[in-house]
Amino acid sequence: MVWPRDVARGRDGEHILARLLQELVAAWAACGTFEWVALGYLGISSVLIALFAENLAHPVRLLGAQVSAALLIVMFCWASARTSGESRWSAGTDIGTNKSLCATGSQRFWHFWRHWYPHLFFLFCFEEMGLLAHLVNPGWQDAKLIAFDHWVTGVNPSFWLERFAHPVLNEFMEFSYFTYFVYLLILGGILYYRREWKTYWSVMTYSAVGYVFGYLIAMLFPVQSPWFSSAGMWHGDLAGGPFTALINLIEKCGRVHGAAFPSQHVAGAMAVLWGAWRHRRWLFWLFLPFTLCMCVSTVYVRNHYLADVFGGMVTGTLGYMIGRWVIRTGH
């Protein structure tokens, strides 16, 4: 005999399940091109972690971190779309003329984080590379890049540049190295302020694709950088001023042992540079000299080989080219 209470409970369960499925569909619909790239990377890296789990100290924790990151991404999309009534922002819908977009505090909160969480995602992935450096290959490949640099230049660039070390030049190079951190913030901030959402997410997608190339290459071809491979061989530390101290602090808190090839500094800067060329040509010309100095600084401050710089230029440019293609095909 079926009691009315059991029938009611069954109907409540079906209602809850239907509501849950409805919310999942809404969250999925709110994801756009950037999210497909980000979630795709998390999926690929998770598969690699599962396949090569024996090479990792805590593979289950890493898989948990990947799943948590994916859930947070979907949550940002779902919460933002739910509070604003929007759908598929990052897929390219231009809603810049919607003046009532952020009428409430909740809408402003989720709108902000919906657009700026990619910076945290990039940081998470980069820091994670310190744990994934030997996921596939147990040995460092620095000797190959040192040989390449010598074949191209006839010297070891980092050691050769040390002869020019001077506090003033050191400070300029550390400043140039620091500029990497503001390129995407500046271009993204301008587009965000102008409410050019479609263009904003295009630039984020260029960066995401470029970084993904770099992350995957770093897993397959681990390089630790001159900072580690040549430790103790320098004549002294690079003394400078406030930017030197700032970079030292950043490196102390977030330096990753591995993931040097290709240079994610250069890749990220190149993706933004090409994005500026397409969407804010005047900003491209403003960024260009700083980006060139930054590329030199990565070698000067002993964080990268010349090969890393070339690799970053290639992956950053591929990020822009393939990112554009992915955006077009996604529409």
- Along the chain, the helix and strand elements come as HHHHHHHHHHHHHH
Q: N- to C-terminal separation?
A: 54 Å
Outline type: globular
Give the low-confidence spans. Answer: 86-100
Radius of gyration: 23 Å
| Largest sheet geometry | none
Total of DSSP H or I helical runs spanning 4+ residues: 14
Kindly report the oligomeric state of this protein. Answer: single chain
Could you tell me the number of beta strands?
0
Q: What number is the mean pLDDT?
A: 86
Q: Into which percentage range does the β-strand content fall?
A: under 5%
Question: TL;DR?
Answer:
The chain has helices at residues 4-30, 33-51, 59-84, 105-132, 142-153, 157-161, 167-178, 180-193, 197-220, 226-229, 242-254, 264-279, 281-300, 306-330. It has 331 residues and is mainly α.
Structure, described:
With 331 residues, the protein is mainly alpha-helical. 74% of the residues lie in helices and 0% in strands. It has 14 helices and no strands. The N and C termini lie far apart (54 Å). About 5% of the residues have low confidence.
Give me the secondary-structure topology.
Elements: H1 4-30, H2 33-51, H3 59-84, H4 105-132, H5 142-153, H6 157-161, H7 167-178, H8 180-193, H9 197-220, H10 226-229, H11 242-254, H12 264-279, H13 281-300, H14 306-330
Task: Give structural attributes.
14 helices
